[in-house]
## 1
Amino acid sequence: MQVAYICAVTFAGQSGAGNNWAKGHYTEGAELVDSVLDVVRKEAESCDCLQGFQLAHSLGGGTGSGMGTLLISKIREEYPDRIMNTFSVMPSPKREIEESQCLKMRKFFLCIDVVGFAPRRQKVRIQAHSKLQVSDTVVEPYNATLSVHQLVENTDETYCIDNEALYDICFRTLKLTTPTYGDLNHLVSVTMSGVTTCLRFTGQLNADLRKLAVNMVPFPRLHFFMSGFAPLTSRGSQQYRALTVPELTQQMFDAKNMMAACDPRHGRYLTVATIFRGRMSMKEVDEQMLNVQNKNSSYFVEWIPNNVKTAVCDIPPRGLKMSATFIGNSTAIQELFKRISEQFTAMFRRKAFLHWYTGEGMDEMEFTEAESNMNDLVSEYQQYQEATADDEGEFDDEDALADTA
């Protein structure tokens, strides 16, 4: 999905947040947010039927996390009835990439666009050695926890993505020896394109942002999704064959194709949405979705019947005859939050690096509240993972007895 940036609706500044959430949210970002909102208003006013907003940002740094969540809260205040949809790049697990993969990576330069502030480019050298970590920001757990605290309250749909999962797809599935940020961004862009397909094209069965939210979010706080795409191809690749609907279905439910570092097999799906593109039979799509649920019933909660939403658009992506986008609301996403929470607690217990945040006007209580909210979120996912239809029945009976009394 290529985006042309129009100068009239582009905002750039000269400062940065220095990997500090507080700088992005309370000081540097707060000075810029009103100017950014003016640009947002101009775009919103030009819409005939504004459906919502879509924000792509990272949670590990200072700008995307701090200013990003500030912008989300301001937009939510001004447009409370519009859908807020984010593609949030989560901190990677800091797991070391396999030595065999690292040895394939020769010295090369990556250009990273610094989004949100000055239109400068940084050059980063990656050395080929036996231990390479995707993530290198020490205070990521602080920034991510403070951000999730905001996202829980102010977004309707959050698509969780992390760079390590994207690297794994590049190495293991696409067989790329030296993946660049362009390759990683390509994977994210095809997913973003798939999610917004029904807004841009007509189809046999449509699912816009609001329909997705209604069908995907059974409880208001549990709106963090994992996403996938099939068929996965590298940028500019012409070596592909047309896949059948069963093959697309198998690929998009494959744990190896998920763009977040958590395994759906470790949890259960509350809801799923699939968006197919290309010429295909609706009957065949429905049969495949039913087949997946029947064969893998233990991975779907039984107390939400028919919890797979399907959309079909006749127009395929450029270069493909058929494709499918996967969106899953799985309790396994708690793995991601648990990992961040453990890292947060380890540092916060010693008050490490805290002075950088309190120096920008933050209070320790904000950290405590964010940590508590993250732990509550994990508990809620675990609660619904363990819930059964029988539990629900007992709960209903108790309610009925209480009402009678």
## 2
Amino acid sequence: MTAKKSLLMGCAAVGAMAFVSMASAAPFNIAGPTASNIDTAPDDPTVLTFNVSETGIINSFGLSILIGCEGGVCDEGGSNSYWDNLSFSVSHGGVSALVFDLQTDNAGSESILDAIFEDGAPVLTVDDVVLSGTTAGTFGPADPFSVFLGLELSGEWTFTFFDNIDLEDDGTNLLSSSIFGTVRDDDQVPVPAPAGAGLLGLGLFGLGALGRRRKAA
């Protein structure tokens, strides 16, 4: 193998290492809490905490929730949803993000929210609420989840709910929840971009010098 070819291969390897290792990430999908009657008054909010043991620095973050009636059956005898009465926020690591706070009563008694929330999607609004049916889809949170990026994933997470319309305790339940996203893959040691770029530049400089020597010869 010629010196020129060896140098080119080395430059390519350094460049690939710098960019691929920087982009590596590991996914997570962690079940969150469930609870009955989360539509408590604003001065007595429902605070649900759960601990995450998985570790890593958060690169991307989203959550999914299913809100409905007990056993999935809504009735006028005391099990109603009206999920759009709710205010919902998520907290971790000393920061908090409001997921939604519609302050409406449009969903009706037999309403369900089956949704994913992540940055980049259209923010959930009152126009998305389905009357006495299922509001489903992927929506953006009221506050960006980017506040969690760069934080350690492990530790205590908190979901906070309260009913901001005077219709609390009507049987609104959190039937399932989860948080998901990606964290830095600790199995790979990233090559800092400046170092990788410097090595690549040094290799290209050497390649040019080799060419000049050959011309001089």
## 3
Amino acid sequence: MKKFNSEKDTKIMKTPNLDKVQEVSDQSHQIGEFLEWLENNDIVLAQFHRPTQLPADCLMPLNKKIEEILADYFEIDLVQMEKEKCMLLEKLRDVAK
């Protein structure tokens, strides 16, 4: 069985989104807690939309999960991040064989 060196073996792989998640972890956690607090206190985030039938913009609730809001804010691609996770898991499985 080949020994797995996590730093050496994973640094070869490019994981910019997972790296970014790790970099912003503390800040993301604090913002996430605040967003949860807003939800728990029935405070809704909203954004302006201009419906085709109405002459003026109207404020509509933002229908995004906290994870999506944080990903947008920190410029993290969630789809790409999931691919990076799968790639790392595959590498771990290969090394464990």
